[in-house]
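[09:14] KT: can someone run the structure on this one? pasting the chain below
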Amino acid sequence: MFTWLVWAVIVIGFPVLLDTRLELKRPDRALSWTPNETARNSQNGKIYLLDPFMNRQVSWDSEFYLSIATVGYDDPAISVVDIPGGERLSKNYAFFPMYPYTIRIVRFPLQIFGLTPIATSTLAGVLVSLVGAFFGMLALFDLARAELEESGAYRAVFYLLIFPTGFFLAQVYTEGLFIALAFGSLALARRKQLFWAALLAAFATWTRALGAVLIIPLALAWLDETGGWRNFRFSTQALLRGLLVLVPVLAYAVWYITLGVQHSLVEDHWFGRSFLDMERFSAGVQFAVEQIMDGGNPQMRAYYLLEFFGVGLAIVACLATLRRYPGVALFGLLGLAITITTGAPQSLIRYVLVVPSIYIFLSRLGRNTAFDRGWTVFSILLLGMQLMLFSVDMWVA
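[09:31] RB: done, structure tokens below
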């Protein structure tokens, strides 16, 4: 717990120190659209990103989570998307409900502090993320301890906290809550506690669509407890427990019936993302490779190199852990494949943050002292750079 607490204080306090020492030149040219969104006055009118309280912990998508938590999906303060056919939908519909609704619950007792509604939601959002990060750490520790013992499991947790996008676990973003639910589900499935694993998987699915992929580790855990493919033992109890495997898909179906259609429309027509959009994905990858090879825009080149590094590391880590952690690795591989093919490569270094195989794989390598020290320095330097950019509303992921 002490490690988590110190990390939280540093991640939240470091941007304050940065403000006293440097000022970044605007705009950010990491992507073709970022110059228009990162000028000095680009946040004007975005009331959820302007409240001074814990302002360095909110940026980009934080606006929508705070809006849903404070007012609801149809918040008039959030701009709308014009859908062909005359329909107009709030951009809030692009975001899943579990995280903002959890913020809404947590913010209720926090109103005693007399903060503004937005500040209260911000405080609640950061607390949800931090507590989620803590329980995600415990789950990852449990997953890694059987192979790596306590020292290696602790190292895996440390690598999670210092990952280049690990600071998202302390911001108004879904990552903290999601790893608590997803990593918790994986750890419980590995222990054959299918009911609780399925319950956390459902909540994870309502946090991010990636949660539905937890059906894979749940299914493998169920098969394992019933004797596996070759020695399958059928019984009424096995059948009933097998129904628990379907819980993530059922949770996804409930979400889709209630919010899924609006989500798909806003994602496609405003954010340019949809399920298995291979055309946008292929075009985006080609463009990214051209930018890396050309080097005319060094900011864009560095951005894409970091994105591809994250994906490459995740793939290698999942393959390296596939034999000992099949459910964990397949969750990472399939989830990554679905995530990165929703459109042009963007935010990939953040998406891979929730792939637990990365930290198990790195912890294996970290048995070597030279690698451990080298990775720690490299990762922390990238973490500081990314946190600095996020805290002043530059594009990170």
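[09:33] KT: thanks! The chain has one domain: 2-391.
[09:34] RB: yep, looked fine to me
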